[in-house]
Design a protein that fits this description.
With 165 residues, this protein is mainly α. It has one domain: dinb family like domain (Four Helix Bundle (Hemerythrin (Met), subunit A), Up-down Bundle), CATH 1.20.120.450. It has six helices and two strands, in the order H-H-H-H-H-E-E-H. Strands 1-2 form a two-stranded antiparallel ribbon. The longest helix is centred in the C-terminal third of the chain and has 23 residues. It is globular.
Length: 165
């Protein structure tokens, strides 16, 4: 296992027991903690549902990456850094005021789905099943799991900053 188990604590832990207002406070033009959690939940949901739908596919081959995808892949999955100017893909942009309980549930369900897929598909399908990431290109399930671990940690820092921690 690759660390998905602690992502609920990393992302939701700082918000546990906090008043409702803390979930929605944000600097002008920035996402609130609730929006960040929903963004992460949408990303988890996308990759999890797509892998689940493809689990019965014949072995796949990775499409050739563009130079931008290669550089982005190296910076995010190898170096652990992404430029602050990247805009989230439309499918992972949160609502203006998402419901706290709903985004918590969606986030936890996404983690559960990926954990189940990890147990079901790895190691057997770890190198021949792909889902396209909008910036990084085609990723295997292990690469998506690494991406989600990095992505959640990246946004958890933003949540802690919103909370003054």
């Amino acid at each position: 296992m690759n660390g998905l188990a602690n992502l609920s604590q990393v992302v939701l832990g700082p918000l546990a027991g906090r008043p409702e207002g803390d979930w929605y406070a944000a600097p002008a033009g920035k996402w609130s903690a609730a929006q960040i959690v929903q963004h992460l939940a949408l990303a988890l949901d996308y990759s999890g549902r797509t892998f689940a739908a493809r689990r019965g596919h014949a072995p796949m081959r990775r499409r050739r990456r563009t130079l931008r995808e290669v550089v982005s892949y190296v910076m995010v999955l190898r170096v652990g850094w992404a430029p602050g100017r990247w805009r989230a893909p439309a499918l992972s942009r949160p609502a203006a005021h998402p419901a706290r309980g709903e985004v918590e549930r969606q986030f936890l369900e996404g983690l559960d789905r990926l954990t189940g897929l990890e147990r079901e598909l790895l190691p057997g399908r770890g190198a021949d099943l792909f889902v396209k990431h909008p910036v990084l290109g085609d990723l295997t399930l292990p690469e998506w799991l690494r991406f989600h671990a990095w992505h959640c940690a990246h946004h958890a820092r933003q949540i802690r900053a919103r909370l003054g921690r």
